[in-house]
Amino acid sequence: MSGGRELILARIRAAVTGAPDVEVTRAYRTTRDLPGAVELFAERVADYRAAVRVVAEEETAATITTALAGRGAVRVVVPAGLPPEWTPPEPVADDPPLSAAELDAVDGVITGCAVAIAETGTIVLDAGPGQGRRALTLVPDYHLCVVRADQIVADVPDAVGRLDPARPLTWISGPSATSDIELNRVEGVHGPRVLEVIVVR
Amino acid sequence: MSGNAAFLGMPAFPRNAAAAVQDSQLRFNLRKATRTIRGRRASVVAELPDWAELRAAGRQIKDHTLRNLDRYLLQLEEAVTAAGGHVHWAADAAEANRIVTGLVRATGETSVVKVKSMATQEIGLNEALGRAGVTAYETDLAELIVQLGDDWPSHILVPAIHRNRSEIREIFRAKMAAWGRPAPGELTDDPRALAEAARLHLRERFLSTKVAISGANFMIAETGTLVVLESEGNGRMCLTLPETLISVVGIEKLLPTWRDLEVFLQLLPRSSTGERMNPYTSTWTGAVEGQEFHLVLLDNGRTRVLADEVGRQALRCIRCSACLNVCPVYERAGGHAYGSVYPGPIGAILTPQLRGMASELDASLPYASSLCGACFDACPVAIDIPEVLVHLRGKVRHPRAERLGMRAAGWVFDRPARLAGAQRLAGRLRRFVPGRLPGPLAAWTDTRDLPDIPAESFRDWWNRTNGGTR
């Protein structure tokens, strides 16, 4: 590629010659079972000022309808592969792909997720079925995410172990926020200003 | 005005700090902000019973990576290339700027959006792009405040920490129109309103700009994955929407395996913004979703740091800024006094190693500390900053008066008889010793009180009174 490559590699080799190697000890908590993971997840998501509803399987469709109505969201983007029972009556499909301007004009987006983390209140999307490409959950101002209880893991190490790095991943912990003004947290900057989560037991 | 060029020719730290501590508004802003973040960090760190073990693993993973950096960089290059990305190597700032400028020119675009990146500030990329006729738009809120205010960053995480809400409102009202959509007419200084103004100002730019430039928090050698942690969603906008993405990343940002992220995704958010997790983390491997992806690997002095047995631990740094937030010197002097994009305790050890200690400013940085050690305690990868500070102090060439004084002291302390003689002489002349020393020696007494000299030394008193019994 350039002379920089060989130069940098040579500098590194000269710099570390004779230095001892270091062994990595992983004495921290790794994979674990966490009773009450659903409750902890809901509590931690709510800490980020995102609305959370924990519902039974058969209440899911009605809860989605209520949530969308509460936001006045009619034109809602639906990624390919979203379960039909979660799909609102007038879905906006991303096929052919919507332009950024079109995404900016919809009322919101509804997705599933790949994994959720109880300890940190995090949802991870991997662009798989029911999630779609990354822009779908970025440009619309309202994101409704449905999480199944069996997708909730205890902590960060469990999530890292379940995810495929070859897929583009988006880890979401609450709505878009900033701490840039006097280090006070303010929700709502460039990403969706409203995040709502429905946890299906 | 960001970038190293802005800091060239700046006076040494003591003079910058002396001026900064006179600014009561600055001290108020810093005190308020660092107190807020210290409290938040302490509570989320205390939540994890295995923090010490995570910290140890973080240190070990980084040290192991640095020891085998050549091997892991080659592995990364192979993985990124296999996933459709292009890898470039830049030995210094000039080469990195040349590569990035060339890549932007090849797209035919004249504007780029940027995710907050320390590495691109370090190399002065915005200025280099400007000279090539390309406008770089900063999109992180604090970077936007710095760019609009024609200011310098003063904190690693929150570059505009020295500005309070009313100052930010004034900057937005005065400057936004020159850079794009003007600030709303009746803008208040409510942080919510200011964040909303930034959202409106940048919205159209995000949706239309074709080229983005980012840094990265981590690169995974095993998989070729890059990782960016952020809060606002400006990072996701830049990483997702443009057709071309160029990431400029220091070679020390590497981690060997995907699994290593399980450590750093716990250490970084809690140390940095004091949150259990930052709002958004994006990871991508090579060219995704039809995007063109270029990775520019940056040395720019890092291999020089790596060659120093004591100093190389500075390369573990994950740029969390916890050390700034706990530092009593930083809290009073602010970030600008350090004359570098890397301020605070980590800057005091990183800047002189990256740039060398030829300038008066860089030679003064290892002294910009009281060695209290709060930074070491707070550091999530256990960088012993005081140890490196002392090590670097040993390398600075000291002023002539100090060298002569130290040589004289060495001669006196070398023989007990000389010491006893000197003590007796000092005791006899003690009425003539001034409170402040004259000439170049004043540098010592400016910041220290001379101790009172006793009439008699302890040894003489002991011999005269037989240990106080006579």
Instruction: Report the end-to-end length of chain B measured between terminal Cα atoms.
Output: 72 Å
- The chain-level mean pLDDT of chain B equals 93
> Which parts of chain A are unreliable, with pLDDT below 50 for 5 consecutive residues or more?
none
Number of strands of chain B: 10
Coarse shape of chain A: globular
Describe the structure.
The complex is a heterodimer of chains A (201) and B (470). With 201 residues, chain A is α/β, with parallel strands linked by helices. Chain A has a single domain (2-200), classed as Rossmann fold. Chain A is 25% helix and 25% strand. Chain A contains five helices and twelve strands. The longest helix of chain A has 14 residues, at 3-16. In chain B, α9 runs parallel beside α10. The relative contact order of chain B is 0.13.
Feature tags:
A: 201 residues, alpha/beta, Rossmann fold, 6-stranded parallel beta sheet, 12 strands, 25% strand, globular, B: 470 residues, 10 strands, 50% helix, repeat (chain B), metal-binding (chain B), 4Fe4S_Fe-S-bd (chain B)
